[in-house]
Design a protein that fits this description.
The structure holds two protein chains of two kinds.
Chain A (H helix, E strand, L loop, with lengths): L5 E9 L35 H5 L3 H17 L6 E5 L5 H13 L7 H5 L5 H10 L4 E5 L5 H15 L4 E8 L3 H8 L27 E8 L8 E10 L4 H14 L9 E4 L5 H12 L7 E3 L10 H15 L18 E8 L3 E8 L1
Chain B lengths: L4 E10 L5 H9 L6 E2 L12 E2 L6 H8 L9 H16 L10 E6 L5 H11 L17 H10 L4 E5 L5 H14 L5 E8 L3 H9 L23 E9 H6 L6 E10 L12 H13 L9 E3 L6 H15 L5 E3 L2 H4 L6 H15 L1 E2 L21 E2 L5 E8 L3 E8 L5
Parallel strand pairs in B: 4-5, 4-6, 9-10, 9-13
Antiparallel strand pairs in B: 1-7, 1-8, 2-3, 6-7, 8-14, 11-12, 13-14
The chains are: A alpha/beta, B alpha/beta.
Chain lengths: ~350, ~400
């Protein structure tokens, strides 16, 4: 499918990086002092009425703030569609209800946590807040969630059923979910600094969280940061060769060769076993292309590629190449095309292509 | 010319049947699946009735032809059984020249296993660790994708009780936009204590058999199930001489934007979903021959849905019924299960009744079809699925043009 261009006209990020300060964009990396990388908590009251705020869980707050910033930047008050993506949904509320149910032997339960445990709570709360009656979808497929939301948005622009689409990826980390996933080596038990991130030998990734919202529009204007050119996902690649062919095919569909990409953002998450896939790709397909990694600044979570897309949007907009980002010693300015390649344990592979 | 979306395969498991034929027979014979709880191990098992599939984990593993070497949730097992039926029914096989997708829906994911082993997961040295990763909502989709060797495109949607109608909608659009050539779409949700207790705290469960659209309705009955359709481009399906059950001719999603769990008094969300789906199909409200309503049996839903229907159809309201008193509310599977019931209606010229209807709701004064009804002509069916978060979806299923 030749995909429809989507102009990124607004970006709202809630991440470990300082809120609202683009110059400090990559100030906070993973650390050996904390096992997980958490968001820099926004001053929620600046965005949400205290009365509403009280009823919102952390993940809903994060989503709401990301959405509001993206809408404000794009000067869009009512998006034609609201599409959210979350791998784990309202994790804290799910745990709260589950624990209460198990601890009280199914007795005396409060409905609030159950009500808010639904995966589409964030999208629903945004619609409720805006009084928005339009299309409202939530994708929940691990590291395909955000990419599914992007594909949905691109198709709507192509179908001309929407002009301004709010798309966001949101996941929260909780102590309990972190602890459980360390048991199956998905997350590391101890933190690791951003500089040692790629060499760490503990099993698993550095856990993270975040909220990244985008206003994707059919028209360019003076708030446009970058253009979303295409997105693709594929499941269960059987070999490095198959993966490489899928990436080549994706680039070819967008009339690019690997060498013509100015920067590849790789989804390395510190898990040496699966990071080897990226490393091999960097040495073969992308041997002549500048590559770097981004999860040392957001940690690993199901919708982390949305942070990667936020970062790529800013790089394309500012045409700055932070020194911290240098990985294989190559830079290529001006930046025209950035490819984000992400994979989850070699099962869920995704590609997002952005253009200046 | 834009592509038309043909339904070429069906798979369904619920408390009223473990395949399409059993489901059809139950519908026709007014045989519902609501009864005493015998599978779910809950302290509430004598307090409520459910639309349970009367097979425990082991029996489902056997039915799916799987063993305990891999960890499966109930949701995944139901999904595999139903999706495989649809895949075989459409005579699909993996070929190099065609891209195949899978879009599934789930609200509860692998909760049935998580709630059993959660305390084990949290121990210093966890046990039942292999079930940890069966919890997330996409897991059942991946298990189905493995079972059917689907790799080209997979995704999962979760928008509460409208989830699987939304997966049909997204799947149809994937074909229209050329992302895939054919797609397995649907949803799966296994019963869990989490869901039962959750709905109980909301006080919207009827302790006896539910009575949708009845003035005395007192809540819903939960059910479980999985169902899938195979969608293909109509022209291709015809060229390959495939049986076409019906066409997905219109769809829409809208948001009620009223309350996280309650629906509005003017039914704006449901109205917009129905209206936009009919518009998109290029039809007028009077072209709709039957509506399979969401009709959960809660006080709030049925009133709002009725108001929205009257607003759209005026005094020309077509035949309608809720089939939730047959299956229970199967949550993430409800939309696709009711789409399949609609397809059976379309193909057999039979409208299945709204069981337990006796008293008209005064405020809306509308009466569902309450006996099995044969009709001479039935060309377009509307089906509704509404969920928490004000998520409202409608789908129009149409009879294909004769060859």
């Amino acid at each position: 499918m030749k995909q429809m261009k989507a102009y990124i006209n607004g970006l709202g990020l809630v991440s470990p990086q300082a809120m609202g300060d683009v110059t400090k964009y990559l100030a906070k990396g993973t650390s050996d002092e904390e096992p997980m990388l958490q968001i820099d908590k926004p001053n929620y009251k600046d965005y949400i009425h205290p009365k509403q705020l009280r009823r919102m869980s952390k993940v809903v707050r994060m989503g709401m703030v990301g959405a509001k910033i993206a809408m404000e930047k794009a000067a869009i008050e009512q998006p034609d569609s609201i599409i959210t993506a979350t791998g784990m949904g309202c994790q804290a509320d799910t745990e709260k209800f589950l624990n209460a149910m198990l601890n009280n032997n199914e007795g005396l339960l409060n409905p609030t946590a159950f009500i808010q445990s639904t995966h589409n709570t964030i999208g629903a709360q945004i619609a409720l807040h805006l009084g928005n009656h339009n299309y409202n979808f939530t994708y929940v497929h691990r590291t395909f969630s955000f990419e599914s939301a992007l594909l949905d948005a691109i198709m709507q622009l192509y179908e001309q059923t929407a002009m301004h689409i709010l798309v966001g990826g949101i996941d929260e980390i909780t102590e309990e979910s972190w602890k459980i996933k360390t048991q199956i080596d998905y997350y590391k038990k101890a933190g690791v600094s951003a500089t040692a991130f790629l060499e760490d030998q503990q099993p698993g990734a550095v856990a993270g969280e975040g909220s990244a919202f985008f206003m994707l529009s059919s028209e360019k204007n003076n708030t446009t940061l970058a253009v979303l050119e295409a997105v693709d996902t594929f499941f269960n690649s059987e070999s490095q060769e198959e993966t490489e062919n899928r990436i080549k095919h994706f680039l070819a569909e967008n009339e690019l060769s690997a060498d013509e990409v100015d920067l590849v953002l790789l989804g390395n998450n510190g898990d040496a076993v699966y990071d080897a896939i990226y490393e091999q790709m960097a040495e073969t397909l992308f041997s002549n292309t500048p590559t770097t990694t981004f999860k040392q600044y957001c940690g690993e979570y199901d919708t982390a590629a949305s942070f990667g897309m936020g970062l790529a949007s800013m790089l394309l907009h500012t045409q700055q190449f932070p020194k911290d980002l240098l990985q294989n010693g190559k830079t290529h300015l001006p930046l025209k095309h950035i490819l984000i390649y992400n994979q989850f344990r070699n099962t869920n592979h995704s590609l997002i292509l952005l253009k200046a | 010319m834009p592509k038309k979306i043909a339904i070429t395969g069906i798979g369904i498991v619920s408390s009223i049947g473990m395949n399409l034929e059993e489901t059809r027979a139950s519908l026709l014979n007014k045989k519902h699946g609501i009864g005493k709880i015998t599978v779910l191990d809950s302290i509430h098992k004598d307090d409520f009735v459910l639309g349970e599939i009367k097979k425990d984990h082991k029996a489902l593993l056997e039915l799916a032809g799987l063993d305990e070497a891999t960890a499966y949730s109930r949701t995944a097992l139901l999904g595999i059984i139903a999706a495989r039926q649809a895949y075989l029914d459409a005579n699909l096989s993996q070929t190099m020249d065609k891209k195949t997708g899978l879009v599934s829906a789930s609200t509860v994911g692998g909760m049935d296993r998580s709630e059993l082993y959660y305390k084990n997961f949290l121990q210093q040295e966890a046990s039942y660790k292999e079930y940890i990763d069966t919890h997330h909502a996409g897991n059942s989709t991946e298990m189905v994708a493995h079972a059917l060797s689907i790799k080209d495109y997979i995704s999962t949607i979760s928008t509460a009780c409208s989830s699987s109608l939304n997966s049909i909608m997204f799947g149809a659009r994937l074909i229209k936009n050329g992302v895939v050539d054919r797609v397995v779409v649907g949803g799966t949700d296994g019963l869990s204590k989490f869901t039962l207790n959750g709905f109980n705290t909301l006080m919207i469960l009827d302790k006896s058999h539910c009575r949708p659209f009845d003035a005395t309705r007192a809540g819903l009955n939960l059910g479980e199930g999985a169902a899938y359709l195979v969608l293909e481009d109509e022209a291709t399906a015809r060229a390959e001489k495939k049986h076409i059950y019906g066409l997905v001719s219109g769809y829409a999603n809208a948001n009620d934007a009223h309350h996280q769990t309650a629906s509005s008094s003017d039914g704006k969300g449901p109205y917009l979903a129905m209206k936009n789906a009919i518009d998109q199909a290029g039809l007028k409200p009077e072209d709709i021959d039957y509506i399979n309503v969401h009709g959960t049996g809660t006080e709030n839903n049925d009133l709002t849905e009725g108001i929205a229907m009257k607003r759209l159809f005026g005094d020309q309201l077509p035949d309608f019924s809720s089939t939730k008193a047959y299956t229970g509310h199967t949550l993430g599977a409800a939309g696709v299960i009711e789409t399949i019931i609609s397809i059976i209606s379309l193909n057999t010229h039979t409208i299945f009744p709204n069981i337990n209807f006796n008293h008209t709701i005064e405020e809306i004064d509308i009466k569902p079809v309450d006996e099995v009804k044969s009709v001479d002509s039935i060309n377009h069916i509307l089906t509704n699925s509404f969920g928490f978060g004000g998520n409202d979806s409608s789908l129009v299923i149409s009879k294909p043009e004769p060859i």
